[in-house]
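Justification of resources, computational component.

The compute hours requested in this renewal are based largely on the per-chain cost of generating structure records like the one below. Each record pairs the submitted sequence with a full C-alpha cell output. That output is archived, and it is also reused by downstream analysis tasks.
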Amino acid sequence: MTTLTFKEYLLLNTDVISGESNSKAFTVKTKYAFQGPKLTTLIRGESKSAEKSHTNQAGVIDWKEKTFEVEGVKKPLADLIQEPKKVFRVTREWQWSDRTYTVVFGNDKWTATRGDDASAVLTMRKVKSLIKDDPATMTFSDACKEDIVFLVLVLLWSETQRANKRPSAGEAVGEAAGGVAGTIAGNALASCCSIQ
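The structure output for this chain reads:
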C-alpha cells in the first residue's frame, strides 16, 4: 500500500509527500490560461532547477490539446476514456496499455478499481473549523504500482472536471439573491400596477 499526501489545498499546485519515506514523491505544477488550467506537470522527487524538473517529468495533462503523457508516452484523452458499461451509473473507464480502471466519485472520494479491487483512492481534504484540516490523500494498492503516475493524472483530471462543474459559492449566492430580488420586484410590480 502506497499513500501520497497533498500538502496544499490546491491539488494542481502542490508538493505530494510519500507516506512511507515522508519525502517529496512528486510536485504538481500547473500553468493557467484565461479559462482554466492549460498544462499540469507531475514532477518526480526533488527538483530545484527548471532543467532538472524536465528530466524528472513523470506525467503531463495538456488541458488544451486534451492529451495525457506518462513517462514520455503521449496519448489523446479520447483514446484513454472508454464509454461506461452501466447506463445509470456515473463512472468512467480509463485504459492505459492493456489495463482498464473504472473511476467513480462518491462520499468525498474518487475510487479507481480494476476488476473488483480498489486500485487507487483520492480522498478529498476535510476542512475542520478549530483544528488542522485533514489533507487530501491518494492511496494505491500494491497491484497498481506500474500505473501510479497514470492514476495520479486520472484522479487529478477527474476532480478538476468535477470541481469546474459545481457552481462557486458566489454564483450560488448570486443565483439565490437574483431569485429573491426577482420575486420581490415581481411582487412590487404586481401590487402597484394591478389592472382593474
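The chain has four helices and 13 strands. Confidence is low (pLDDT under 50) at residues 170-196.
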